[in-house]
Automatic annotation (TrEMBL):
Protein name in the entry: Alanine dehydrogenase/pyridine nucleotide transhydrogenase N-terminal domain-containing protein
Alanine dehydrogenase/pyridine nucleotide transhydrogenase N-terminal domain mapped to chain residues: 20-157
Keywords, ordered alphabetically: NAD, Oxidoreductase
Signal peptide range in chain numbering: none
Record-annotated Alanine dehydrogenase/pyridine nucleotide transhydrogenase NAD(H)-binding domain positions: 197-396
InterPro entries from the UniProt entry: AASS, AlaDH/PNT_N, AlaDH/PNT_NAD(H)-bd, LOR/SDH_bifunc_enz_cons_dom, LOR/SDH_bifunc_enz_cons_dom_sf
GO molecular function annotations of the record: saccharopine dehydrogenase activity
GO cellular component terms given for this protein: cytoplasm
Organism encoding this protein: Aegilops tauschii subsp. strangulata (Goatgrass)
Record-level GO BP terms: lysine biosynthetic process via aminoadipic acid
SMART domains: AlaDh_PNT_C, AlaDh_PNT_N
Amino acid sequence: MFVHSHSQRNDTLLGNGVIGILAETVNMWERRAPLTPSHCARLVLGGGKRESGVNRIIVQPSTKRIHHDAQYEDAGCEISEDLSECGLIVGIKQPKLEMILPDRAYAFFSHTHKAQKENMPLLDKIMEERVSLFDYELIVDDDGKRMLAFGKFAGRAGLIDFLHGLGQRYLSLGYSTPFLSLGQSHMYPSLAAAKAAVIAIGEEIATYGLPSGICPIVFAFTGSGNVSQGAQEIFKLLPHTFVDAEKLPELSAGKSLPPHHQSTRRAFQLYGCVVTSKDMVAPKDPSRCFDKADYYAHPEHYRPVFHERIAPYASAIVNCMYWERRFPRLLSIDQLQQLMKNGCPLVGISDITCDIGGSIEFVNKSTSIERPFFRYDTSTNLYHDDMEGDGVICLAVDILPTEFSREASQHFGDILSRFVTSLASAKGLLELPSHLRRACIAYTGKLTPLYEYIPRMRKTMIELPPTPANSLPDKKYTTLVSLCGHLFDKFLINEALDIIETAGGSFHLVKCDVGQSIDDMSYSELE
């Protein structure tokens, strides 16, 4: 248990060069660490050579962390439950509220800067204890690109876990496939070992083929960001060919191959198709062509076509894209039910975004690493936890990167270790470089200017059920203002609220769809 030390004020703790590493407590499977023993060794050795730097690192003991306590001790760290001597305390996920010490600096993924309701007690505790909070998600370079993220690891684990389940699902449908011998990501000691296992089943496919009754096996990947890149990285270890969306009908009919290959060659490889927004929607006006800028500005001018152009030919959908309610869904329940009635070859969906009730409407819950799949029976509209029976299987795990805890921690710590020396030694906010100042939500218990919109949003937030795109709340108002753009990552939300208040107006936030990557825009409705 932590020892609270109200007598030690921030002027003696902030910048004292002592770092604490939290034991992760939020999820049973969370085995990542913000800094590995090798990072700690370099920081401690490097800090000793400077007048101000990292003097000591104290690590909370953990029996489930990917790196053992003894490895941290060997690296020169101290092992202790008590982090009260630390001016800077770092973790991956948020600590329990009772573990937050006063007058310290903390760095972790806090999920508070969009006024997320479930994490407002955490923000209240931080203010109450005069804490300085730095959020990894907000550390961006001058171009606005996130510097600390796990997207590729989510994509890698999400595809391996899906292939693992695909083997079981095909078996329940009466087909033996090489996928059956692949384990889940966490069952391998390293990413390299998991990749070797994927390569091995790829060799089996290339040598012995896949049952013709389930071929061609087509994977549709949505999006082109880090998550999609990670998933495609694993897919490319298998014998494969990528095809354009317009070629899918030919492929399904076996017309895209030379005649002497049509009966045999399809069974010896898989097919991939990377799907972008032009494959998901089409202008409602048939005389117009798809225009991405126009689509983002006026999604109401477009209708969904993914269920016509892509889904009828896909064996698997790997969903890696962010979605907002103002856009058409990728796949609605009605569309999926009709597709399955028409004999669509879709076996399953890997929803790596884990966007509940989002772009894939039937995904109504997240799943756990120990039970990663559920089955949705389209004929009965019922959900099941087994693999046997009608319908499609779905993976929706929201903590995928921890399955590669060792490599994910190494990747994360390589970047974080460049920042912690400044965070651990700075006596004031102005001593920090701009990318760290921007990532500071609260400093000594007070919100920094960039984040002063949070209480304004909290105070005016109206709880609404998900609304259909472009519908207005059934409520009186004088003016409805729609804001679209980089509202949070470039902090335009502050300017918008200032303009309204300067003009003598008051507002209620009635809808807020927040972009989850630097390339995504956010959308808010104020009345």
